[in-house]
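Summary for the steering committee. One of the milestones for this cycle was to obtain a three-dimensional model of the protein with 5-amino-5-deoxy-1-O-phosphono-D-mannitol bound, which we needed before selecting residues for the alanine scan. The sequence and ligand used are listed below.
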Amino acid sequence: MCGIVGYTGPRQAYPVIIKGLKRLEYRGYDSSGVALLSDGNLKVYKKKGRVTELEEEVIGKNIEANIGIGHTRWATHGEPSDRNAHPHSSASGRLAIIHNGIIENYAQIKQELVKKGYSFTSDTDTEVLLNFIEDIQKNNHNSLEEALRIALKRVSGAYCILLMDQSDPTTIIAARKGSPLVIGIGKGEHFLASDASPIIEYTKEVVYVNDYELAIVKPDELILKNLGNEKITPYITKLDMELAAIEKGGYDHFMIKEIFEQPSTIYDCLRGRLDAEAGTIRMKGVEDNIEQLKNANRIMIIACGTSWHAGLVAEYIIEELCRIPVEVEYASEFRYRNPIVHKGDVIIAISQSGETADTLVALEKAKENGAFIFGIVNAVGSSIARISHAGAYTHAGPEIGVASTKAFTGQLVVLAMMALKIAKEKGTITDARHHALILELADIPEKVDAILKNAKEIEKIGQVYKNASDFLFLGRGYNFPVALEGALKLKEISYIHAEGYPAAEMKHGPIALVDENLPVVFIATKDAYHEKIVSNMQEIKARKGKIISIVTEGDEISPGLSDHYFSIPSADELLAPILTVIPLQLLSYYVGTAKGIDVDKPRNLAKSVTVE
Ligand code: M6R
């Protein structure tokens, strides 16, 4: 959460920073700001709202500078406002800071500073941290770098910070713990950002800064140190990302672009792994650790949000194919309760961003207890990918819309392949079933493409129900987690209250909500539960609820019970969620856009939740 950009080098810093902030706006968009340093003058411009409002704010102002830092905010401490926007300046006006994260003990530090006579112009923890650093520097007469090191040893919480000192015209000092930071290495210039998207058009050589590291960044020098002031050799990696992947490419929104990318992202996820002809799957992370995986007494899956829903689907798949008990945990619950984790327990972490704070901390905790961590992550080089013992990338490419779409289907594909591999090694699947599922997987991109060709039908349904105040999503078996995902997508993107439920459980409460105004979405594809879900549809129909159903092509029963239906190609029930979720993603997109909502940046949300 919160996007951070910095630049030092021969270029004009402002355009680099603004462009970078626009790319990072998915991380937060409550307010934004820049601090620019030239001729010993530190200029800070900031504004509530989107980055475009900041651009308007600076029209006619002096933005000449070769060094600067910029921030786009997702509010934690203090409401979204001009005064709470970053950058913040220190009491003397000499230092400027931007910060992503939360300083948990800021109130105590603030009290100490207030006693010393400090006053504050914002409600933020960040301004407290900055004045704390300046106070240490003033009292101890040490360098900014040294003062920062001392301050960071006192603070608890998460941070990625960038600091500038008006008396040092070329240096940005950065530090991270728990919030991401990438440094791009150019020729005589450096770029700093929360992820690689602001950097990619300038250089592909980057350094991912680790927790408890400090970076002293000048145009032609990058020094990495730990909090003990020891130098660390920067590890330079090459970015495997193209600029086109982070642009809208003619679509109105990233979300719809990402939904429509799914035939190719799923194909990319299968490519090089699945060999349909030979009937084999290659996954190095699984192969290298197969003994551990197949002999696990249980598997725990840890994730948040949509990734947690992928975990629920995986629970059904792994238990069915591998006969290993699976528990799926919300990372935020796991990290604070006292979970039983034994040495050698297998934990699968699922995360699009690889930076979700709750998931990251839950994994650290499990790792301390000796668990084996297998990460299923989309963002290459992210924190979760790096702390995992092994893993598999989803290869969906950068996902920028706040609502997760293509990452979810990528997660399902990786999990299905992983389960098939373990089952094969464990001998819990027949060769015939194994091969049949491999062939089914190979056909998925084409089937997703076929669904997307009929997106207009979903758009019409969206128009009919755009003013509904509530929605119910019902599914059974493998499609129960898809019902949860459909409800989450609709809530996020259209602000309509929605609940996902196991269809049979509906009778135990939610059925009380049903009347002629309630749209009920049934995921009613042909599977072992089909007759049961048809009965559930009858129950809703009897109470005059409006039925929208997702059915298998050729189904002659469910459409007759529905006010609207959408047909999808048939698939093995185990893989059906990869298909059934697509119309639900489209429904949320079309309802959201019909209501005029900025679906890429829905209110109160941020793409990457790097605070707990
Ligand atoms: O990056 P992660 O997969 O760890 O993110 C987890 C959730 O924050 C995320 O899935 C969130 O629920 C999305 N906005 C859902 O669309």
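Key point for the committee: The chain has a mean pLDDT of 94.
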